[in-house]
Amino acid sequence: MSDPSKKISNFNRRKFIQAGISVAGLSALSALPSQAEPLHDEPLKVQEPDNSRMFPKGFLWGTATASYQVEGAVNEDGRGKTIWDTFSHQPGKVKNNETGDVACDMYHRYKDDVKLMKEMNAQTFRFSIAWSRIFPDGVGKPNPKGLDYYDRLTDELLANGITPFATLYHWDLPQHLQDKYKGWLSRETAYAFGEYAGYIARKLGDRVKHFFTMNEIRTFVELGYGNGQFAPGLKLEAKGLHNVRHHAALAHGLGVQAIRSHGKFQVGLAENLDIPVPIIDTREHILASQIAMREENAGYLSVIMDGKYTDHYLQKAGANAPDIVAGDLNIISSPLDLLGLNIYMPSSYVEAASNTLGYQLIPFASSHPRSTSEWHRMGPESLYWGPKNVYEIWKTKSIYITENGYSSADEITANGKIYDTDRISFMRSYLTQLQRATAEQVPVKGYFYWSMMDNFEWASGYGTRFGLYYIDYKTLKRHPKESVEYFKTLAVKNQVV
Ligand code: NOJ
User: Which of 44, 93, 173, 460 has the smallest count of CB within 10 Å of its CB?
Assistant: First the structure.
């Protein structure tokens, strides 16, 4: 990009010398004829970007979606009902009472969407499988027609040179499991998940080599069973909530083992761990941020990585601690090949403290900048401290940023373009921090922007747009935003641009 101030100074120097005026006589500028010669008959010097913002060789660039958010076709080919079908059809649960009935209709348009991915130089795609397309009731007889869709999608991706990464659970629990077992309140749901995960590995595992068991356990537990904002819309008391959390972690572990029993795969989960960011990069605050990361994720990633709940977590839970059956913790902490991190923001800032925990969380200032999503505070450093501290604490060998994205107003201009300058600025600043981590040898292997296209943003409906492609929900046409160009360049250069 050219810098306007440079244009003026080049122009001034040349013209003023020709006219015999000193550079200091700036008022003469207005006297110059308006039909001046082209400004740039002397080439302007543009400094080529150097290589210091490169990502490691072989770094994968892609985008992500989730079944209920993009597929639509909720009554097709034997798909069973899910808790999100039920929830979104209850008046008042989703903004404007919108539902995922049609969503982006990716179920029918996946071929065109894969074409778009290829055009944007994406090398990988993370999608989720709708459990209830495969087992309409969550358990029992599989539905071959449902599996066919993921077969076709996988083949299409591979034919276009795009590596599939599949998530097995992105919140669309079969309704039957909610009705029969109260969903994640019961261990039965975890066992059912294990069966389903093994089945998928058996059926797709000849072509899909990367699996995530669950997406954001923290979110579907806290919002679905804690405050009722997401399906199934429950507000459980502490004991129930601890058990829901425990069963979700158990399901993850059972899923890992079931997938492994069918071959050699790269298996992990995609979690939105809490990332307390050191308020200042000094040794004491950095240490506090590591202690805090383990403690603040005690019921989620930490138990999965460590195979135990922290003392503080159990003490705080008291009589409401989860019901742990012998062997559970071993299953939950089954070794992982990779770890997916969904990173949007710091969970808070943190400083060292001389209390029993050794840290003190610092809440966001009320003026802290946000995106159009209320919850979304800007904090590019989270994309450094997330992977960095995960690596320092758990020595994880392979990390993927399984989500990172931004919702913006996305106004269409008169020339039909969508200049999502804020999204591009977001990506550039966050990716600068991710590059900083890779430059320090943190083993981050890939990045999936959330999302490939606008979609059903859960309780916020369709008005909140995270996509690189804009969806016109009347016609379902996809329009590239300016950020598609940004992504294209990024993926080709493998460098922050
Ligand atoms: C995380 C979730 O995995 C995804 O489904 C959601 O749309 C994005 N965050 C944005 O909120």
Answer: 44
- Show the tokens assigned to 61: 């660039």
Separation in Å, CA 205 to CA 152, 191, 202, 261, 431: 14, 20, 6, 11, 32
Which DSSP category does 43 fall into? P
Nearest atom within ligand 1 for CA of residue 458: 7
Cα(4) to centroid(ligand 1), Å: 39
* Residue to mutate (ligand 1; options 95, 458, 465; most atoms within 8 A of CB): 458
Q: Can you name the residues that pair with 342 across neighbouring β-strands?
A: 403
Distance CA 383, CA 387 (A): 7
Write down how long the chain is: 497
Nearest Cα to 219, choosing from 316, 96, 69, 342?
Answer: 342
Closest atom of ligand 1 relative to the 457 alpha carbon: 7
Which regions of 303-372 does DSSP assign to beta strands (E)?
A: 339-342, 348-352, 359-362
216 is known as an active-site residue? yes
Residue pair 80/135 in contact (Cβ under 8 Å)? The answer is: yes
Q: For 430-449, write each residue's pLDDT tens digit.
A: 999 999 999 999 999 999 99
Active-site residue (options: 216, 295, 381, 457) = 216
Per the annotation, the verdict on 403 as an active-site residue is yes
Residue of 261, 258, 292, 264 lying closest to 278 (CA atoms): 292
Whole-number Å distance, alpha carbon 456 to ligand 1 midpoint, is 10
Ligand 1: residue of 69, 401, 452, 466 to mutate (most ligand atoms within 8 A of CB) is: 466
The closest-lying atom of ligand 1 relative to the alpha carbon of residue 66 is 5
| Range of weakest confidence among 16-20, 329-333, 424-428 | 16-20
Residues near 396 by Cβ (< 8 Å), separated by ≥ 6?
336, 338, 339, 390, 443
The predicted model scores a pTM of 0.92
Q: Which CATH architecture has domain 60-493?
A: Alpha-Beta Barrel (3.20)
